[in-house]
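Onboarding guide, step 5: your first structure request.
Type a short instruction followed by the sequence, for example:

Predict the 3D structure of this protein.
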Amino acid sequence: MDPIAPLIARFHAEGRPRIWSLVITIMGDVVQPRGGHIDLARLREVTGRIGIEPGALRTALSRLVADGWLERERNGRSSGYRLGPSGRAGYEPAAARIYAAPAALPEKWTIAHLPDGTEGVALGGGMRLVPGAAPDRAQIAVEGTLRITDAARSMLCPPDHATAFKALFADLDAVEGVKLQPLDAMAARVLLVHRWRRIVLRFPELPDNVLPPEATDPRGRFARAYRALLPGSEQWLDAGGGLPAADATLASRFA
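The system replies with structure tokens like these:
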């Protein structure tokens, strides 16, 4: 039985895969700590393991190059890719959110008027619920402790957010404690990071006491799964040759 089949099946069951987005996940998570360049053959190998056809990958790569997200490089008869201007501009802000360490529960909360803010959870009328102290740029703010009712929890973590967590936890359950071959570990790492990346870049990050009971400690669970997959996935990268050793940013993720 294919040990990562559940992850691959869920990825493809969610509609037509956005292969260009999956490639950006690979470039940011896998390639950037290893010098920033990956050969096309290696990219084909890992995406092929996930069930991406070569033609679909080629189309996605052409689009990413045209839009400035990737740059194509040639070395003799081989070709490869690295992040382009748009990719480099978006990498560090996204990485800061994707690989942040799990945070402690806030002792107090703030309801603040942040008309152009992205922090916290929108409550309407320009008001947002923000963990911790009021941001300096808040025009109006009320601080205090918070008692979460079931109704409030449903409002703060709406159905699409809860559904995204459900899929994440299903993927985490599927790989927990499973010994994977290097390529399988890499494919599982890519799929998990891709799912996590879409959650943290789309939804506000919520403390555990706001989340549904079945979605406890998502960042902590993801970080543990990520660390468990690192040795095997990095072994796959080492076995192919041609890549420098990972830099310090890899070890510092979730620290």
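Each response can be followed by summary notes, for example: DSSP finds ten helices and seven strands in the chain.
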